[in-house]
Design brief:
It is a single chain. Helix 8 packs antiparallel against helix 9 and helix 14 packs across helix 16. The chain is globular and about 60 Å long. The protein has a six-stranded mixed sheet with strand order 1-2-3-9-6-4. About 50% of the residues lie in helices and about 10% in strands. The chain contains 19 helices and 13 strands. The chain has one domain: Cytochrome p450 (Orthogonal Bundle), CATH 1.10.630.10. By secondary structure, it is an alpha+beta fold. Bound molecules: protoporphyrin IX containing FE.
């Protein structure tokens, strides 16, 4: 057996551990922990975590020894009950059954068929912008990705109807699942305004899903969206997904697929606003790729657009940290870790490490053009995770982001109004800009 060494550890302050340093400057705090080793123990409040900061142990956890790890218990205790039954947090056989049932929704052919919807919604948003108008990227892109998701998952055009129910639910999910919300650290039975809003929004959403399911079952049950798939698909033993699970699953997808894509797009446009070279390349390419409008068939020609997105997700990975928990004692990078220990895998740190990237702070999409990926260790870049639990929506998200960004870039010019130095980062469940990013539109 390989010999094991004691884990390097950072205790921080009595009782609170590293919390004060983290609150002061989260990224300096993470860099400080990571400077002690590839795998480091630290205390956050009363909880002990093991942070993972190197591609090799990341690969061990996500891929090669994935069966020894699970999603951690503390995520299940967040009081957001619906997540437990959804694909993101379920485990074992329940997860396997769900994943195989839902996978066909994300096959390439199926995803391509959503391309036109993605472009339609983007053109609609772009058409609404006036010449000279100042818009907030975060708000606009969040609205857009929610519309796309609502139509492709639920078959609902939220511009026309049911908009408020879905928008309210999406806002309430983000609020209740935010680590800074009181709901995150109060026991689930303690009443709070956030939970009250969440429960009310869930109630309305339940009614909407019931209505939609009845419509599907009474009419054409074979809608080619996630709702249609779930309403009709059978597990291997012939059983069906019950209505409650369908509802939980839809909420999980709204949570996992909405803000992530909109943040990646927001950061991409934010960087393109600051770097004229990459912007001009992406604009020229998006304009040349099609005469009238972009479609899914044009995506292979959108390489500069793709690199612009990949590079933004390197610097600012929306899922900046992945969580796991050991199911049994494991050896990671030569260190023994006992059973039941929560782990944090820092995509942010690995993606910004000069060990793997030259001038890691530079936004340089062209680095992806030069065959960088072949030279990188496998898990030096993992915005969509990896192994069996990798993002089921990865291809959907890449297609969506390329079509949205390409359509925006060929339709309008924009200049940053917000000073980039004024934009900080909030490492919540996702990595967000801490303020709105405003741009002036030129048509
Ligand atoms: C830029 C956009 C996106 C990013 C960066 C992203 C990132 C991720 C990551 C890192 C994971 C793995 C989490 C872990 O291992 O703990 C994940 C899982 C997941 N993602 Fe995404 N995602 C994106 C878009 C989407 C979209 C559009 C959807 C749905 C339409 C989606 C649905 C899911 C689901 C359901 C899971 C759980 C999969 C499972 O455990 O089997 N994601 N995502």
């Amino acid at each position: 057996m390989a010999s094991t060494e004691a884990l390097p550890s950072v205790d921080g302050y009595p009782l609170v551990g590293i919390v004060p340093s983290y609150v002061r400057d989260p990224f300096a705090c993470i860099d400080d922990i990571a400077s002690r080793g590839d795998v480091v123990e630290y205390r956050f409040g009363y909880r002990r975590f093991v942070g993972v900061y190197h591609p090799d142990p990341v690969e061990t956890v996500l891929v090669t020894e994935a069966a020894k790890f699970r999603k951690p218990d503390f995520l299940r205790q967040s009081g957001v009950e619906f997540l437990e039954n959804g694909l993101f947090l379920s485990e074992g056989e329940q997860w396997g059954r769900q994943r195989s049932l839902l996978q066909p929704m994300f096959f390439l052919d199926r995803i391509r068929s959503y391309g036109e919807t993605m472009v339609d919604h983007t053109r609609h948003v772009v058409d609404e912008w006036d010449d000279g108008e100042v818009v907030g990227l975060r708000d606009e892109l969040s609205r857009l990705t929610l519309r796309i998701l609502a139509e492709t998952l639920l078959g609902v055009d939220i511009r026309e109807e049911r908009e408020r129910t879905i928008t309210r639910l999406s806002d309430a999910i983000l609020e209740v699942s935010s680590p800074t919300s009181p709901a995150a650290f109060l026991p689930p039975w303690v009443p709070s305004l956030t939970r009250y809003r969440f429960r009310r929004a869930v109630g309305e959403f339940e009614d909407l899903v019931d209505e939609l399911l009845t419509e599907r079952r009474d009419g054409d049950p074979s809608g080619d969206d996630l709702l249609g798939l779930m309403a009709t698909a059978e597990f291997e033993d012939g059983s069906r997904m019950d209505d409650e699970t369908i509802r939980d699953q839809l909420m999980t997808f709204l949570l996992a697929g909405h803000e992530t894509s909109s943040l990646a797009l927001t950061f991409t446009l934010f960087y393109l606003g600051q770097y004229p070279g990459p912007r001009e390349r992406a604009v020229a390419e998006a304009r040349d790729a099609a005469e009238d409008r972009l479609g899914p068939a044009d995506v292979p020609d959108l390489t500069a657009v793709e690199w612009a997105i990949k590079e933004a997700m390197r610097l600012r990975p929306p899922a900046h940290v992945l969580f796991r928990q050991t199911e049994e004692p494991v050896t990671l990078a030569g260190h023994r870790i006992e059973e039941g220990v929560p782990l944090t895998l820092s995509a942010y740190h690995v993606h910004n490490d000069e060990e793997w990237y030259d001038d890691p702070d530079e936004y340089r999409p062209s680095r992806w053009a030069d065959g960088l990926e072949e030279d990188l260790p496998d898990y030096a870049y993992f915005p969509f995770g990896g192994g069996p639990r990798h993002c089921i929506g990865m291809r959907f998200a890449m297609l969506e982001m390329q079509l949205v960004l390409g359509t925006v870039l060929r339709s309008v010019e924009f200049e940053l109004v917000t000073d980039p130095d004024d934009v900080g980062l909030t490492p919540a469940t996702t990595l967000r800009p801490d303020s709105e990013i405003r741009v002036r539109i030129r048509k």
